[in-house]
Protein: TraB/GumN family protein
Amino acid sequence: MMNRLIKLATSMMMLLVLSAGPAQASLLWKVSGNELTQPSYLFGTIHVICEDRFIMNDAIEDAFEQSETLVMELDISAPGTMQRLQALMVNEEGPYLDRYLSEEQLETIDAYFRENLGAGVAQLGGLKPMALNSMVMIGGLPCADTTSYEVYFMEQADEQEIPIVALEDVDFQMGLFDEIPLQEQVDWLWEMISDSETGEALMESMVQAYAEQDLDALMEIMMDDPQFNHYMEMFIDERNRNWVAPLREQMHESSAFIAVGAGHLPGDQGLVNLLREAGYEVEAIAQ
Structure:
């Protein structure tokens, strides 16, 4: 039971980042045809990764340099976005963990927070479980130095004076987690902390699959828990379908480098297949 909950918790926190894999393992795809005057590129990201696992090569850089617009799920560089994100991470009703956990569980979480996050429940207990889960997962990465594809591409866009287009806003993204019962999210947090070794091992296996661009293996890991399917539609499939129209419009306006969580690329409802169904040629780029 505990291992199942840990798998679900870790998978849920990666939902905005990762998912299934297509027949051709690749993070970078070329989109052409269907009256496009120039190709666009689709790249699957992971929001946080150890620096020594960061994948960057000539193929990715060339695709970016050929693009005139950077398209992302969220533009965190937009004015007011980070302030809004910080505000949305706070539970509106204040501290809540004591309503869902025993005194002994609270003491365990408090000790874990102090040792690994530098602050206890008194300081962090007002944050939503999603924020706490993210902090725990990042803290569990086997490295001191981490990096982010989103930040990297935004910095490149700034240097090259390339405009950034966001597919969603921060209120929408954070609202996805608000659809999940608080009790369920607290349960995930507890299981991740009470058996942190299992959670860290699962996270490592996911990151390894990403680093190897083996999205089939990644899907196998995440779909091992049947409850994952309950949230797949909300976090991945529905959003993918909603993105197709604005992506089509953007690609016909200018060549775009589309950097979204790797989980949005594969599967029947993945962007690779949806764009093909919309009439485009979508080809994996060898690296």
In short: The chain has 13 helices and eight strands. The CA atoms of residues 267 and 273 lie 7 Å apart. The chain has one domain: 2-90+144-284. The longest helix spans residues 228-253.
